[in-house]
Sequence to fold (237 residues):
Amino acid sequence: MNPNVTAIFETVFNVVYLLTVWYLVILMAVKLPKVQAKNKTVAGLVLLAFVLLAAGDTGHVGFRVAAHLLGDLNKTVSVFGSPMSLLGIGMLTTAYTVTLFYMVFVYVWQERFNQKATWFTWLLLAAGVARLIFMALPANDWGNTVPPQPVSLYRNIFLMVQGVGLIWLIFTSAYKANDNTFKWIGWMVVVSYAFYTPVILFAQQIPVIGMLMIPKTIAYVAIAIFAYFGLWKSKKA
Fold:
């Protein structure tokens, strides 16, 4: 595909995505006081998770848009006197917020299904903390446009533990309770990881695989939509 066409398509998609996810966040926030009492705590946690996701992606996606508009994906800026690429700063931002997103969703699961913390939930939270610490190591080279290997793989192992663990929690509880909202949310997390895993493993060798981030991103929007209609719009007693 022509690089200029790819850049235009990516830029348009990124702008539409940011507008959509922030619209959903604002809609959730405005409508939160009207959520049924039994759903309010869960809805508040979901809102927090998507504020984190939207904020991180504004850095990640927003800086990609800026780099495309500047005509240089390797564009650097000075951060505390050190040069960093715009894309690197964006990747750093979203890497932290998506980790927090999955940590918050552990609490979403606990509240939705009236579950107490267990060794497994503590394991998922510990994986998140470990990832946050690991990503602070200099070897991550966030100033680089292309994530270095094998460090990129190592830091994403923690994220895989978080995601797969959350999928297991949601599926076991949602199917037992016949909770259609969280069944769909669980499946959308599966979809997001199905598209993200090849990017983690092969994007450095086959850059076009990075396009799989588009359906992965759409899956997150779908999670927000299912959560909104299941929690904010629910009329069940």
